[in-house]
Design brief:
Helix content: 40-55%
CATH architecture of the largest domain: 3-Layer(aba) Sandwich
Shape: elongated
Number of helices: 22
Radius of gyration: 47 Å
CATH superfamily of the largest domain: Periplasmic binding protein-like II
Number of strands: 22
Structural class: alpha+beta
Strand content: 15-25%
């Protein structure tokens, strides 16, 4: 601390020699590049609020237009300051001694405007087309050169007549995405944009500039003008309604308030006034812009930025003042040499300690870098503005791009899919609040493959952002497979449960059959066998013969029951062989077979043309055989038996039906029809086992369909069954 007082002494001597700025106001002209609108709001605010007056300047703001050459006005001396696109760096490379003071937009609003109905979605589709392009629209030209179509397009002078795009006389024209004034009474949706930023041309927008002559003449005035302008911009972006009123009242703007508000809202997205200091410029960014122009042949390869940036001249000023300070300091050195010698000794000791610590720090940094570089996760370091500072090897591998294609680029260089950005947008607001943002997004690599990633991003102590992410594509695929597997498993469990329920129902019916239906024939056989034995003992042969006939009938009935039970059992075990089945063929074959019986020859058949359906032929034949047999049997006592077969088709299923005019049944007992051994008529009226309809239901259940019946006593019956359509079947 004992040396600090000498530093203050030197500083005081230096400051005492610095002359104060003149208080006299000087006249200054600021040339705009376009008509009065919110695009230049900061300059109006600086003038109206007196910021320029406080800086000692009387500023005259000159409106631009279609034919305004801002560069010519400033270089010729008609205006001391101007507002122009980043094309000023091209003008600098061509020998114009311009100096950029501030970048108002962090991202350029320049775009090529096309008819949204023209089908033009990318620059390559402009080949053979006509567009209006101004001489200073270097960003659009750079985009067209980059996409290899500039020499294939007819370039017309810029007239500002955007309605010619809708009329079809031209295919596009340059404009600002912040400005909808050109739309006028047209629908805003009539236009769409091709933005250079989409194709890697990411420049600043609306740069405030002056000349080297103005800086050499009065650097302090340049500094004061710049600071007053940026102060005006800060106020304008915080108070848009007030400045819009100012533009309309004092600058004769013909734009509506809603147009100016729209322009403000779009400018805010490009300026980031809440994140980035208005006017901020980065030398590396300008070098990137120059490099882009050099790669496209717009700027010569040997061009250097030296003297183009305002900060270069500010540094030169400080170099001069440091020289003056050194001269003054030399006069004081003789009195403090002894102190300095001791101070140097102390500093050398500190430096040795610092060197040791530096070596240890470098070794630690190298170790840390190796961990990052060869880690299993992708790691990206970025600025708070969204520019990538560093990318490790794994991040390049996951994204599918080289390191040089990522570092120095905006975060949009990572090819996130639009869907994933809509699902999980970039949240710089949360990061600035100190929160950690964890998201899942999809990346579309240059080879077209999609990679699912899980990304964790947070702001570090130095203000930079760090993102750690990993490839979870395989994990997501496994999750999908697991969901599908679980769904299939659930379906199988449901099917098995249904089969088990059917088996239980069948078991109950079988138990009943064993205890009743199968026992009845056995009682007949036992009883009539005993009668036959007695008749034979007494010599009554005729009665014995009749008893034996009863035994045979009981045996046949029992055999029929056993056969039907076996058939029902097989329908549950047979593998389904689903084919495109012609129902008409099955019906015709069965009808011919039944008509061979004499008792069914008088039946009147009415059969619709039936559709082909996906089903098992063997099992579906059993279904129709049982249904037709039932219809014929229960209508056989009618004088004019009729059978009608048809099908109704809906969006998702086929419903087949068979209708007869037989004895029918009481609707109250419909729920018993499809159970095993359930019969609604006595055996002496109509022979049967009660298994046929149960077999029909089991087969239709296995096909994913359903069965039902409708009837009235002595008015016939109708049996229905449905079969589902396959997915995609019309």
């Amino acid at each position: 601390m004992r040396h600090t007082k000498y530093v203050f002494i030197i500083a005081f001597v230096f400051l005492a020699g610095v002359t104060s700025a003149s208080e006299q106001k000087c006249a200054v002209n600021l040339q705009l590049r376009w008509f009065h609108q919110f695009q230049f709001a900061g300059y109006y605010a600086a003038k109206e609020l007196g910021y320029y007056d406080e800086a000692g300047m009387d500023v005259n703001i000159i409106e631009g237009g279609l034919d305004t050459d801002v560069m010519k006005e400033v270089v010729s001396g008609k205006a001391e300051y101007g507002v122009q696109t980043p094309s000023i760096v091209v003008d600098r490379s061509e020998g114009n001694p311009v100096v950029v003071l501030a970048a108002i937009f962090q991202h350029s609003p320049v775009a090529l405007i096309v008819n949204s109905k023209s089908g033009i979605e990318n620059p390559s589709q402009l080949a053979g087309r006509k567009i209006m392009l101004g001489e200073k629209n270097v960003e659009i030209r750079a985009m067209l050169i980059s996409e290899g179509v500039l020499d294939k397009i007819k370039i017309l002078p810029f007239t500002g007549k955007y309605d010619e795009i809708l009329e079809g006389s031209i295919d596009g024209a340059t404009g600002y995405v912040t400005d909808i004034s050109y739309v006028k009474d047209q629908n805003e949706g009539s236009f769409s944009y091709l933005r250079p930023i989409t194709y890697g041309i990411d420049f600043y927008g609306d740069c405030l500039f002056t000349t080297e002559k103005e800086i050499k003449k009065d650097l302090e005035r340049v500094t004061a003008f710049r600071e007053a302008s940026l102060k005006g911009w800060k106020y304008a972006m915080a108070n848009p309604d007030e400045i819009i009123g100012l533009i309309q009242s004092k600058y004769d703007s013909t734009l509506k308030k809603e147009d100016l508000l729209y322009e403000y809202s779009q400018m805010k997205k490009l300026m980031y006034p809440d994140i980035v200091e208005i006017g901020h410029m980065n030398q590396g960014r300008w070098m990137h812009i120059v490099g882009t122009f050099q790669n496209l042949g717009v700027i010569r390869p040997d061009f250097k930025l030296d003297g183009f940036l305002y900060s270069d001249h500010l540094n030169n000023k400080w170099k001069f003042e440091r020289s003056a300070l050194l001269a003054i300091s030399l006069t004081l050195l003789s009195g403090i040499i002894f102190i300095l010698i001791n101070y140097v000794k102390e500093k050398r000791k500190e430096q040795r300690e610092e060197i040791r610590h530096t070596k240890e720090l470098k070794a630690s940094e190298a170790k840390f870098r190796n961990i990052i570089e060869f880690g299993a996760d992708g790691i990206l370091m970025g600025s708070s503005e969204g520019y990538i500072i560093e990318a490790n090897e794994m991040s390049c591998e996951i994204i599918g791009k080289k390191r040089e294609d990522l570092v120095g680029k905006y975060v949009s260089a990572i090819p996130f899919t639009e869907e994933s950005l809509e699902r999980a947008p970039l949240r710089f607001d949360l990061l600035r609040e100190g929160k950690t943002v964890v998201t899942e997004r999809d990346i579309k690599r240059p080879d077209g493959s999609i990679v699912n990633i899980e990304m964790k991003t947070k702001m570090m102590a130095d203000g930079n952002l760090q993102s750690i992410f990993r490839d979870i594509t395989e994990k997501k695929e496994n999750e999908k497979k697991l969901k599908i597997f679980n769904k299939i498993l659930e379906q199988r469990i449901e099917e098995r449960t249904k089969q088990l329920q059917n088996a239980n129902n069948d078991l109950e019916s079988f138990s009943y059959s064993v205890s009743h239906d199968l026992r009845a024939p056995l009682r007949h056989i036992s009883g009539f066998s005993d009668i036959t034995r007695k008749n034979l003992s007494s010599g009554s042969l005729d009665k014995a013969s009749e008893s034996l006939r009863k035994v045979e009938e009981a045996t046949e009935k029992m055999e029929k029951l056993i056969d039907d039970l076996l058939k029902l059992s097989r329908t549950g075990r047979m593998e389904l062989n689903i084919i495109e089945l012609d129902m008409n063929r099955i019906i015709n074959e069965l009808r011919n077979e039944f008509q061979q019986s004499h008792e069914y020859k008088k039946v009147e058949w009415k059969i619709q043309h039936l559709p082909s359906v996906p089903a098992d032929r063997a099992l579906m034949t059993v279904v129709w055989e049982n249904l037709i047999d039932n219809a014929l049997k229960y209508s056989s006592k009618n004088d004019d038996p009729k059978i009608e077969i048809g099908c109704d088709v809906s969006a998702d299923r086929y419903e087949f039906y068979i209708k007869d005019n037989g004895v029918g049944f009481d609707p109250e007992y419909t729920n018993k029809l499809f159970g095993v051994f359930q019969r609604l008529h006595l055996d002496k009226e109509f022979h049967g086992t009660g298994i046929g309809l149960a077999t029909v239901k089991r087969i239709i259940d296995r096909h994913g369909g359903s069965v039902r019946a409708e009837a009235e006593v002595e008015r016939g019956a109708t049996f229905y069954f449905t079969l589902p359509k396959l997915q995609g079947e019309k």
